[in-house]
């Protein structure tokens, strides 16, 4: 086994164990392999081990790999900051966008989504820890943006994405995810039908699953440390 195959197996096992421990349905948490900075060959190794969902956060790099690999089975998720001048290519090449945090980019993605493709699945990125340097909309402003995004054609608002402040303490990790879950539940009491919580990375996967994550975004634990 290559180390990527091995790491994928270990990550899947972590998810299985967490699902069981926190009474989540087996298979209810999707593993998104975050392949940013990794070569196309690393993605092919993961693909060979049955991984089809990949996350990228830099458009040019992602487009290169999407073209190189050119395999229709792959599902590409854009998880990085969105520059307005990149929305057309994002709308044309991805199935998911996790990082919407303002109406302007949502409108541009909506306008650019090709009619021949299914609706683009989108999540609103929430700055749940209130960090000055992080992207994401404030929890207080999320409902208004969610209302507006859910009415845009070509987009299917699925839920929320968060990157909480790094935190080694499990209880505190859970707290940020718990706040995100409650925010999603609140939106659903206002009549939305959101089914996605994109939360949990290599170091806080278990806490995220405990609080209802449906997509964990895992880079380092699968591909090893990134080159910077
Ligand atoms: C890089 C990245 C990840 C993966 O982080 P790891 O700690 O390497 O698992 C997840 N989500 C986003 C938005 C990222 O940019």
Which terms summarize this structure?
eight-stranded parallel sheet, alpha/beta, 228 residues, binds pyridoxal-5'-phosphate
What would you say this structure looks like, in words?
With about 230 residues, this protein is an alpha/beta fold. It has nine helices and eight strands. The protein has helices at about 5-20, 40-50, 60-70, 85-95, 105-110, 140-150, 170-190, 205-210, 220-225; strands at about 30-35, 55, 75-80, 95-100, 120-125, 155-160, 195-200, 215-220. It has an eight-stranded parallel sheet with strand order 7-6-5-4-3-2-1-8. Helix 4 (about 85-95) packs across helix 5 (about 105-110). The model has no long low-confidence stretch (mean pLDDT about 95). Pyridoxal-5'-phosphate (PLP) binds near residues 36, 79, 201 and 217.
In the sheet with the most strands, the strands line up as: 7-6-5-4-3-2-1-8
The number of helices is: 9
Written as H for each helix and E for each strand, in order along the chain, the element string is: HEHEHEHEHEHEHEHEH
Structural class call reads alpha/beta
The 3D shape can be described as globular
Binned, the helix content reads 40-55%
């Amino acid at each position: 086994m290559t180390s990527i195959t091995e790491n994928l197996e270990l990550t899947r096992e972590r998810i299985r164990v967490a699902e069981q421990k926190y009474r989540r349905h087996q298979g209810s948490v999707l593993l998104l392999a975050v392949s940013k900075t990794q070569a196309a060959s690393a993605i092919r190794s993961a693909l060979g081990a049955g991984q089809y969902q990949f996350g990228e956060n830099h458009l040019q790099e992602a487009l290169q790999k999407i073209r190189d690999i050119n395999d229709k089975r792959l599902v590409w998720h854009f998880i990085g900051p969105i520059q307005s001048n990149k929305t057309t290519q994002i709308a044309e090449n991805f199935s998911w966008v996790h990082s919407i945090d303002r109406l302007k980019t949502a409108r541009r993605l909506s306008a650019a989504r090709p009619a021949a493709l299914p609706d683009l699945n989108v999540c609103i990125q929430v700055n749940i820890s209130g960090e000055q340097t992080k992207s994401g909309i404030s929890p207080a402003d999320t409902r208004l943006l969610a209302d507006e995004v859910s009415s845009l054609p070509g987009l299917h608002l699925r839920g929320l994405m968060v990157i909480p402040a790094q935190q080694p303490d499990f209880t505190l990790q859970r707290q940020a995810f718990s706040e995100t879950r409650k925010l999603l539940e609140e939106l659903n009491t206002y009549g939305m039908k959101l089914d996605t919580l994109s939360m949990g990375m290599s170091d806080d996967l278990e806490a995220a699953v405990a609080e209802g994550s449906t997509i964990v975004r895992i880079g380092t634990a699968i591909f090893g440390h990134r080159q910077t």
